[in-house]
């Protein structure tokens, strides 16, 4: 038979009043020392399903409040000093990233940047910056992220040769950057017939490296190895124009890491 204050099921130490066979003045628990102990306020045990549903609801509410506080100010007037640190991706589960079609080039060439895992449907802006604090970044492209990805092509701005940053950000606060190296290449003359020669000069290449050249995909041999100095520059390297189809094409110089390309016409 049951006894006042003793649970109906001895293995359970927190039963509701209905668990006691005999009536008692107020809810009781049976403690681990074998003594009855009354508590002033009794809270019935929640079924496991209710407890789980409440925890999930709280998590969802916190998730919504987090993104409601995301910045929504336009970035078109930002300078590098006010840009957020690159690599802060607030929208997606996967990290956002950008990819450049080329990691180096010269003024006038076109660069393509693609991105993924940004906030879907948000306007984005592409900056081209030399990394110097206080110097405004050039806005070179803009658009919409669509489903979270994008592709944008822009002309490489004119600037001093060296290291730059391509920085992409959207209104939700997602942003990412990629390094870019600006080079320079000049040819005099910039037109010539096959087997004729032209003189080329360049800057922004690796120091003490041999620069090789191609015209329309064919190797343009230099009369002597064209090697850069300690500053990454070279001057007046004489090239023989290869036998290629006539018309506008490209003259490309590369040290194996950095490259530059300019318009060239084969007569």
Descriptive labels:
Immunoglobulin-like, disordered N terminus, single chain, 267 residues, five-stranded mixed beta sheet
Verbal overview:
Helices cover 8% and strands 38% of the residues. The protein is mostly beta strands. Among the domains are: 80-182, Macroglobulin (MG2) domain (Immunoglobulin-like), CATH 2.60.40.1930; 189-266, Sandwich (Immunoglobulin-like), CATH 2.60.40. The strands form four sheets. Strands 4, 6, 7, 9, 10, 12 and 15 form a seven-stranded mixed sheet that branches. A five-stranded mixed sheet has the order 11-17-16-13-14, with no helix packed on it. The chain has a three-stranded antiparallel sheet with strand order 3-5-8, with no helix packed on it. A hairpin with a 4-residue loop joins strand 9 and strand 10 (175-188).
